[in-house]
Hints:
alpha/beta, transcription, CheY-like_superfamily, Response regulator transcription factor, five-stranded parallel sheet, transcription regulation
Amino acid sequence: MGPVKQIGGDPVAIRVLLVDDQPLLRTGFRMILEAEQDIAVVGEAGDGLQALDQVRALQPDVVLMDIRMPRMDGVEATRQITGPGRDGPAKVLVLTTFDLDEYVVEALKAGASGFLLKDAPAHELIQAIRVVAAGEAMLAPSITRRLLDKYADHLPSGEEPVPDTLQTLTEREVEVLKLVARGLSNAEIAADLFVSETTVKTHVGHVLTKLGLRDRVQAAVYAYESGLVRPGGQ
């Protein structure tokens, strides 16, 4: 059981902003989320521009973001919410109708912490919000990899020179980054490298810090875009 819902004092619920151009969907999401003790829906928006205004005014922890909307789409809204000079700590969880949607890749690159299908079961939606609010990525790197592989023509061929930023990593950290990008969990990486899971978590933390990345999703995207991991490669 999460903390008691209380917006005006402590303990404070996870503050969620719903962004979708379909009011009926927003109502459905609100009903699901408001039933949880540790989640509070603090506002709604029907497009990206409204979302930016609401983020500034309401300071949500998590923005549940549709991608295709009028005036400003979810990708650009995500970029502005999570980019440099952003107002507040909001993290974006993208909602999509199709799991292999090129806009999802763009949203992840723009700074989204993950994505979820609109028809996902209620418990997955709730868990996703909790995971993202805790600062973690909401999708398995294997899903990220599947997305990036599908749109491999937008990514480097692997022939480009490796970025200078990679030189800040140790050999072991580069190894861990490759495994993260290829879809392995911390436990699987630990087994592969014959180290403890705690050690892997430490390495992943160092990689994110050194490269200025928010989470494992962005680490996977970075590994592909830098040419460290080649699309479709093993």
